[in-house]
Specification:
The chain has about 220 residues and is mainly α. It has one domain: Four Helix Bundle (Hemerythrin (Met), subunit A) (Up-down Bundle), CATH 1.20.120. It has 7 helices and 2 strands; from the N terminus they run H-H-H-H-E-E-H-H-H. A two-stranded antiparallel ribbon has the order 1-2. Helix 5 runs parallel beside helix 6. The N terminus is likely disordered.
């Protein structure tokens, strides 16, 4: 792999196993804490998933309504990571390994790509599908409307898999996408981790939308 320029030069690194591990890997210290929680024997998949499904239906998805391309790609500070066209019709997320310190601010486009693919899409495909979806086969969206369509598909695939799984599946270990720790823990812990990831990244995206709105207000008043 080419050496990473640590001066925050924008580049799109090759989609390697290192990238897959870093983008998909749960935070070890955080996930282990949540997975040590004990669950009642009667806890079912719907009870685990309801937290995220309620948030999706009542808060997050509506909060993304009206997202336009300018806002999708807006860079609030210099040196942001985003999703960029690398060849006609082909888009990739900015990336470098090892990551810069401090980590760059990421755009709505970058964060949506992370939630759509690393958090939801890859997990749905690997735990409930044919395990064909990887960074090599994924098609990253170049526009806001395409990104929201891709997010909806990934969420529905995850939702369908969770609600269709037998109850005993949640006490077993299921191998997730390459680079993740999913197989090390009972699957109910993976579900809780995905809940946390979608909710907290969704909050970040909502904040960026608020900042973009205020930024445009100030520009129009100048």
């Amino acid at each position: 792999m080419a050496k990473t320029n640590m001066q925050m030069t924008r580049r799109v690194a090759p989609r390697t196993r290192a990238k897959a591990r870093a983008l998909s890997r749960p935070a070890v210290s955080v996930i282990k804490v949540s997975l040590r929680m004990s669950y009642p024997d009667t806890m079912k998949s719907r009870e685990l998933f309801d937290q995220l499904d309620w948030h999706w239906e009542n808060q997050l998805r509506a909060r993304l309504s009206g997202l336009g391309d300018d806002e999708y790609l807006w860079e609030p500070v210099p040196g942001c990571w985003s999703v960029r066209e690398t060849s006609p019709g082909v888009f990739a997320a900015d990336w470098a390994w090892p990551p810069p310190d401090p980590a760059p601010v990421t755009t709505i486009a970058w964060r949506l790509a992370h939630v759509t693919f690393s958090v939801l899409g890859f997990r749905a495909n690997w735990h409930f599908g044919d395990r064909s979806l990887t960074w090599e086969t994924a098609k990253l969206p170049g526009s806001a409307s395409e990104a929201l369509d891709a997010l909806d598909r990934s969420y529905q695939a995850w939702r369908t898999g969770i609600l269709g799984a037998p109850d005993d599946f949640f006490a077993t270990r299921s191998e997730g996408p390459p680079g993740t720790l999913d197989a090390q823990f009972p699957f109910e812990g993976v579900v809780l981790h995905i809940n946390r990831e979608v909710i907290h990244h969704g909050a970040e995206i909502a904040l960026l939308r608020d900042l973009y709105f205020r930024h445009n207000q100030e520009d129009s008043n100048d």
